[in-house]
Amino acid sequence: MSTVPDGGWVVIRDPAWPSPYFGELERHAPAGFPLSCAAALDALPARPTKPGVINVHRLKRLYREPDGQRTLDAAKAMLEQLAALREGGWRIVWTVHNLLPIDGGPPSDADWYAALGVLGLADTVLTHTCADAVYLSRLTKVPVVVAGWAGLSAPADCGPEPGPVGELTGWLRAASYAVLVVGNLTAYKDLPAVVGAFTGHTRRARLLVAGPCRDEVLAAELRDAARAGGGRVRVYPHRIPPEHVHGLYRAADAAVCPYRVDGPWEFFTQVLYPGSVGTALAFGTPVIAPDLPAISEMTAGHPALLYPTADGPGRLLASAETVPRSHAPRPVADSAARWHAITATYQRMFEQLTEPVPSA
C-alpha cells in the first residue's frame, strides 16, 4: 500500500499492529483499486485533490490520550476531526469488525460514544455477516453493506515455519485429539474458564492456547490453569505470524473460538466478527464455539459444534474427544474466492461513493 494518500481508498491502520484482514484485502485487491494506508487521521490532507474514502476499523486507536486511556474528550475530538475531513471532501466508511473495543478492559461510555458517533458520521458501514447488518441498521440511517467473511489464507511464499511454531505444530500432531485456541489472549474470551472446561471434561486430548497477551494477570491465570492439565495444555503467549497460522489449524482436530456475552460483553450477541472462526473454516478445522448469530451464519454448512451461550465448551469437548480421528480430506471454505468477492465489494463502494454528483 502507498503511504502518501491523497484520495483513493485509505485504510487507517497501525503499522505496529497490522490488521490481518486488511493484509488479505491488499493481497487480493484487483488491479486499479486505489488502496493505500495511513497511520492516523492527521496524515491526511484536509481536502483531497482526488476523490477519497477514509476507511476506519479499529476505532479505539483514534481516541486515546497520550497515556493510552480512551476518554470521552478524546472520542469527541476524533469525531470532530472526522466531521472536518468529511466536510473537506472525504467520504467515511467504517468496516465494523466489532462494535466496541474487545481487548483490554470492558467497553466504557467513551467507547459507546465513539461508536455511535461514527455510525452517525459515516457514509457507508461495511460488515461481514447479515446478522451484524440487521443490528447495525437499527443504529444508523446510512447504508449497511454486507461485504462477506473470509479466513486467513496460506500464502505460497510464506517460507519455512519459525522454530516455535513448527514445534507447537508437531506437539498438536502427536496428540490423539488436538484442540487449538489461537488469537489475541484477552478477557473477552474467558480463557481460564475454557482451559478449566478442557481439563475437567477431557482425558487424552491436548490443548494449545496461542497468541499475544498484553495482560500479565491473565497470562499468569492461564499458566496456573494449564498446570492442572498435567502436561496436556500449553500456553504460548506470543503472536503467531498470520502467514504461518495455517499449520496449527491443519494440525488441530478442533478450534475452540470462545466469546463471553455477560455484562459489558453482551454486545457480542448483536455484532461480532469472529476472525478465528473464519480462519478455522478456511482450513477445514471443525469449530467449537458459542451459538451466536454471526457464528451460526458463518458455520452453516461447515463442521461445527455450537454450545448455548450460558454453557461452556466442556461437554462438546468431552464428546468430540471420543470420536476417532478421520484422515479424510476436510471440506474447506474457499478463501481466495471469498476475498476476491470482498475486494469487489470494496471497489464497488469506492465507485459509488466517489461518483460525481450531476449538476442541476
Task: List the SSEs and their pairings.
Elements: E1 8-12, H1 20-28, E2 35-38, E3 52-56, H2 72-87, E4 91-95, H3 109-121, E5 124-127, H4 130-136, E6 144-146, H5 163-173, E7 178-182, H6 191-201, E8 206-210, H7 216-227, E9 233-236, H8 245-251, E10 254-256, H9 275-282, E11 287-290, H10 293-299, E12 304-307, H11 314-321, H12 335-353
Number of helices: 12
Radius of gyration: 21 Å
Structural class determined from secondary elements: alpha/beta
Biggest sheet statistics: 6 strands, parallel
In total, the number of strands is 12
Distance between the termini: 37 Å
Q: Order of strands across the widest beta sheet?
A: 2-1-3-4-5-6
Helical fraction:
25-40%
Low-confidence stretches: none
- What overall geometry do the principal axes of the alpha carbons give? globular
What is the averaged pLDDT score? 91
| Beta-strand content estimate | 5-15%
Task: Provide an overview of this structure.
There is one protein chain. This protein is an alpha/beta fold and 360 residues long. It has helices at 20-28, 72-87, 109-121, 130-136, 163-173, 191-201, 216-227, 245-251, 275-282, 293-299, 314-321, 335-353; strands at 8-12, 35-38, 52-56, 91-95, 124-127, 144-146, 178-182, 206-210, 233-236, 254-256, 287-290, 304-307. Strands 2-1-3-4-5-6 form a 6-stranded parallel beta sheet, sandwiched between helices. A 6-stranded parallel beta sheet has the order 9-8-7-10-11-12, sandwiched between helices. Strand 7 (178-182), helix 6 and strand 8 (206-210) form a beta-alpha-beta unit. The model has no long low-confidence stretch (mean pLDDT 91).
